[in-house]
């Protein structure tokens, strides 16, 4: 796949890729060996490093430990806002039913109103946190609930014990919650209201500046992963299920819970746009950033121009060129 | 040697022996000890290091159970330490978290005496050991000699039937030692206590004891007993030093020869 | 000899110099942009952040509220540890049978990383204060317990023996001798224990908290607010040192006889 | 005396009985379904899980590989701490000027929760082994350093003076007297230090790891595999006790004169 | 008193004084000391506790700098401790991490003598103190008397010009003490050492010293010097005990009167 074979001496020995344990195009690409044909076969070792969330991935980017990182778009905003030298090159998936606000059976919570006075758990700084805050704000009860900062595994534990009746979380823990609960709202519905959240891919600019072709190849891997899924969902689900230690059925269900983009869709006006005309996703990111700023989560909300520059579709375009 | 009229028998020890069973084979520390202590006796025990002096004292104190023989106090078996037998150790083992007075009041307090009596007793013995001025001092600011005086007063305050002392003056310098000997001698004369004292200083034993026991090691047993009266007669009362005469020197030489073998 | 005073002031200058040097290096590398402000924020930025947190609080809570809730957790946990570990430790030290029962359990959990069993605690106790305080409690319990056991087993046996000879019964010995004699070691261990609990604070506040100085650092690290992280660390460092100084002062006051046993 | 042996075997029985009782209670409450298996998995399930991990490993790595990588981290960090903290601590103890420079820095970072500065370490050193090992290293450094300083300052001055009178120069004194005289304290502190590092293991393996026994517990807690959590905790408890036993044996061998200074 | 022919002057002390500047006002420990030590002198220093005996010895050893007056050794100022003046302390201060032989070899090793010489010297002095059989023993298994013999041999092995001893036999029991006195006397007679020894035992001073210095306290200074020859003539060589005669008793009384004020 790499055209400049003559300059192989300049290629890095290894690339470090931070990923999340979620069933997405990256996971398909990883488990089906698609990276091998673009990287390993060129003598480049791919190191895959699991992160629990974008939080730790951002730290790893800051210290230069990884070159690529997958994270929720809120963490992408944090990266930009805190001055990390990175750019956004891909949208893995637009979050839909994969995330949602679960309420426990028998808690008599059927509407936003009922949430008043409740404890709601969610991992702070996540896309779920963002969606939850907006949901509460829409309902006008943001000051009437107690938010608890918990990691997903702790949410399940607290849920099982009955400490909490509501939590905004994502798969696979969301599935655990829904075993004895129901979904009050999903990120899909929130996205329809304009609060779009997505898992995105960031790359260190130092890396992308040096090896733009490799970045394009990286996107090829991801889009091939997406293609594989679209071609044969069962096969992809079976592949990722093993790594995620869930059943293929569950995997497929979770995969269907979000929207996977093709490169062409990603370059569309609704999402990243092209190098010449920024897409709508930049606006969404800016809105999200403004919201996070009002929450004092970030100190400065970068300008629209900064987001336009941050979201860089050039590598997608490159990946489509040949 | 004098012909003295003996007091009542307080302690009777017969064929007493102690084996220590450590991790290895048992050690026979003392063996075949026979001893009768009368009221008013001032017994000094001499003997080479490791001959079992402390072991014997521990049995009498009730800290250790003999493995053979009998030990009766006032005709009864002893089951453990109690206030009838007060003990003064070489290191004073006073309680550093208590003042001088509190240390002395400890015994009477344990006996649940009325508060008034406790204070009175403590004051009395503080006076006897010349420490009334220092009653509120903390222990660790006292000199070695003062500490031993507190330890002495602490035991005296309990008015035990027998006072047991294990090299009480061993850690003091020569001069303080002579002053302490004088103090003990004066107290003994005044209160008519019964004292069983271990020492390694022959001069000390000779100048204090009414009875001097000499022990030998392996097996640790009493090989000689002397009845003396230097404590009553041959003392230069101004300095508290024993007036040395021919008889004294001969006795001392004899004892040294006895130990030094 | 005469140079002692001069020496100690040179040393103070050296210490101040060291910190000044650290500050200058810090200032210079951030000023010259040698490292990204994300990795090392400038002293000015950290100070600004400190002032802003002082004024506006963090996450809707004042800095004092954050400190307050952390210290509340620390205080309750330490207090619980003190009132349970001391009696249990002393009993374990004094009665071999108690020790046989309790000791191996403590020895087993002691080396465990708190985070390993925190999950279990959350499953058992929920996400409220109780699990946080229990985590800190367990961290603080072991050092005090272990120190009590060793204090009692290393106690000067003469203290106990002389108490018994002065008429004290087992109960008297325990409260009047064993307890005070162990106090200096207990105090040292309380300092260790509070240090251990303090060290565990961030772990405890990592789960299901939205307050506390430890949570502040964790939360700031989520949003990559380096200057807040630095503020948090500096505050924790200083309060940690202050707590220890306070405890040390208390120690000198209460167990003034320490080192004189 | 004679009952020592009998006593110690009763005590062993008591200890075994305690653990049996814990096992029985555990078995009963899970058998009767008093608590959800998520909160407390049954002993059988835990044992099954242990066997399965032993056979199949966890997350594609054998149990030995997990233990191996954890011990590798622990070992490298402890070794680094030993070779740096001992010289620095001894120098700090011996030369007041070195102490003035180093001490306050160590005192400042010592009470800090490792998780608080782990964030900073990751920003500085990345997510590789280096930041994990540094975290463990810092946890292990402080106890050794502090113990070395106090060992040197508490050294019997006669040791140093007599060495000088025997013709030793400063260098000789440092290597032939200060170092060996501090060894017993150093050894105790190494045990503490490795314990501290062990306690920090889970924190270190919490971020961006996919191996290690600590990570196994964290990962299991992420998926609420209670029985794996229990297996991990039990393994960590036992290895923690074993490490300490090993160090203690080594200590008795190397600093055999400990307690006789 | 005998008329003796004096050896060369080794040490000259003139108008020497030491002030201790503690935290409070300065303490005048010794004052206006004038003393000349000749080769072959056996000087014994007596005096009440706290009169400054140890302070004087520390100045001579080089551990302490005088605050007034001059102290010359072989005509030169002394800047610190060195092997020319060997010191024996009350507590033997042997190195517990070395065997008996290694302790004795320490001095010669510090002087960087050839290996062969070191072994020879050690063997020679091991023989002289009768410890050749115990050369491989560890220090803490020795009795008090044996320890002091090792300490003596350790200093002797360095063949210093002057041996300084601070109450070397103070901690020994009466019998061991007499044996050690005999040993020191024999060694002095054989090797013609120069010895400066502090003691609180008048008998010891009288039976060993060729010159006895008596000091008084506040201000600590030399108030009497006696030239004696009991060491050479009046000793019962079989037992090593001084033969007591009228002259001896009179001298002893006089000294006791001198100190006891
Ligand atoms: N707890 C013990 N276990 C085993 N053996 C012991 C114990 N205590 C003392 N011994 C041994 O018993 C013997 C007598 O010891 P003891 O302490 O009674 O002698 P001592 O005459 O008091 O000696 P010293 O004059 O040195 O105080 C010694 O051989 C000693 O080693
Ligand atoms: N380091 C010190 N700082 C202050 N004062 C001291 C110091 N060492 C000794 N002194 C004081 O100096 C005086 C002489 O002490 P020194 O130890 O020389 O007496 P000593 O004759 O050896 O007594 P002892 O017979 O008890 O050993 C005493 O008053 C003592 O309190
Ligand atoms: Mg004894
Ligand atoms: Mg002295």
TrEMBL record, chains B, E:
Residue span, ABC transporter domain: 13-244
Top-level taxon: Bacteria
InterPro entries for this protein: AAA+_ATPase, ABC_transporter-like_ATP-bd, ABC_transporter-like_CS, ABC_transporter_ATP-bind, P-loop_NTPase
Keyword Transport belongs to the record: yes
SMART domains, sorted: AAA
Keywords carried by this UniProt record: ATP-binding, Cell inner membrane, Cell membrane, Membrane, Nucleotide-binding, Translocase, Transport
GO MF terms, alphabetically ordered: ATP binding; ATP hydrolysis activity
Keyword rRNA-binding recorded: no
PANTHER family: TAURINE IMPORT ATP-BINDING PROTEIN TAUB, TAURINE IMPORT ATP-BINDING PROTEIN-RELATED
Name of the featured protein: ABC transporter ATP-binding protein
Organism encoding this protein: Acetobacterium bakii
Automatic annotation (TrEMBL), chains C, D:
CDD domains in the record: TM_PBP2
UniProt key word Transport: yes
InterPro entries found in the cross-reference section: MetI-like, MetI-like_sf
Residue stretches spanning the membrane: 12-29, 74-95, 107-127, 134-153, 197-218, 224-247
Protein name: Taurine ABC transporter permease
Record lineage: Bacteria, Bacillati, Bacillota, Clostridia, Eubacteriales
Compartments where found: Cell membrane
Record domain ABC transmembrane type-1: where: 67-247
One BP annotation, GO: cellular response to sulfur starvation
Membrane association type: Multi-pass membrane protein
PANTHER family: ALKANE SULFONATE ABC TRANSPORTER-RELATED, MEMBRANE SUBUNIT (PTHR30151), TAURINE TRANSPORT SYSTEM PERMEASE PROTEIN TAUC (PTHR30151:SF25)
Family: Belongs to the binding-protein-dependent transport system permease family.
Key words, A-Z: Cell membrane, Membrane, Transmembrane, Transmembrane helix, Transport
This protein's record includes keyword DNA damage: no
Any one of the GO CC terms: plasma membrane
